[in-house]
Specification:
Elements (H helix, E strand, L loop, with lengths): L10 E10 L2 E11 L4 E5 L6 H8 L7 E7 L11 E3 L5 H5 L2 E4 L11 H6 L16 H11 L15 H14 L4 E5 L7 H18 L2 E5 L3 H7 L2 E6 L2 E6 L1 H4 L2 H8 L1 E7 L6 E8 L3 H5 L2
Parallel strand pairs: 3-8, 3-9, 6-7, 7-8
Antiparallel strand pairs: 1-2, 1-4, 4-5, 9-10, 11-12
């Protein structure tokens, strides 16, 4: 039976449990990604964020649960029909969902354009033929990520921030309606973090891409996301708009330290501040 897909959704995981060595690390999780919406997954280390995201990308197999995907390559359509995403061939799935994973290697002997062209593999037939839109898709991805001027440069000559943009361009060249990003700002300096997250926001706003992103920085999640999903010990414990989810009580309970939340007067976004260890009332009375 084809899994249920709510109207307007691009990708939905429902009742997903994921196990390592026979032990569940994600329990009965549900996650919905919508066109034009950035959904951020947050939680402490080991909470299951990346594992769940990798399962959405079919890089990790779930023990139980369903994965529903909008019909047609263009998942941004409002009249799509649901597909069982787990039943699609790898090539058909890759025409619909792209993922930027952590820690991609730096290939040697390849130019920026070569790497971005990797993203066209789902659209090519045998011997790399039959991709009439490939060249324009690659050029568009290079422009969107601001690396067109580097197209002929070797990727082993790039900075970490530039290389991250190149890998993102490869995902965009895949021309999917769903984009998954696993901690995309890791190892980037502040400038490149801001520029990359601004680009992700533009992809959702201007191209109506459904974005799922794992982030460690709570303030980045507050500024970037339309919806936030909080995981703790492998379970989804809260989801909703940032103002509804990023509360001092919830964050303090999940992270085990006192976290205060206020509004940045300059940006209007929520901001968080870790105060220290989160004590119970008994601990405060009896240190």
């Amino acid at each position: 039976m084809t899994p249920h897909l709510p109207t307007g959704a691009a990708l939905v995981a429902d009742g997903v449990s994921i196990a390592y060595d026979g032990v569940d690390v994600v329990h009965d999780a549900r996650l919905e990604l919508r066109p034009g919406c950035v959904t951020a997954l947050i939680g402490p280390n080991g909470s299951g964020k990346s594992t769940l995201l990798r399962t959405l990308a079919r890089l990790q197999q779930s023990r139980i649960g369903s994965l529903a995907l909008a019909d047609g390559v263009d998942t941004r359509s409002a009249d799509h029909q649901p597909l069982d995403a787990l039943a699609l061939s790898p090539r058909d799935f890759a025409r619909r969902v792209a993922m930027l994973t952590q820690g991609r290697p730096t290939p040697s002997g390849l130019t920026v354009r070569d790497v971005v062209e990797f993203g066209r593999y789902p659209h090519r037939g045998r011997w790399g033929r039959g991709d009439a839109d490939g060249s324009s898709a690659v050029d568009r991805a290079l422009d969107l990520t601001g690396v067109a001027a580097l197209a002929d440069r070797g990727v082993d000559q790039l900075s970490g921030g530039q290389l991250q943009r190149v890998w993102l361009a490869s995902c965009l060249a895949q021309d999917t309606g769903v984009l998954l990003l696993d901690e995309p700002t890791t190892y980037l300096d502040l400038r490149y973090q801001v520029e990359l997250l601004d680009l992700v926001r533009e992809l959702a706003d201007d191209r109506r891409i459904a974005v799922g992103v794992v982030l460690h920085d709570l303030d980045q999640a507050a500024a970037l996301a339309d919806r936030i999903v909080v995981l703790s010990e492998g379970r989804v414990v809260a989801e909703g708009e940032p103002a509804a989810v990023l509360t001092p009580h919830l964050l303090s309970e999940v992270w085990g330290i006192r976290i205060d939340v206020d509004t940045d007067p300059t940006t209007g976004h929520l901001r968080t501040r870790a105060i220290g260890r989160h004590h119970t009332r008994t601990e405060r009375l009896h240190p």
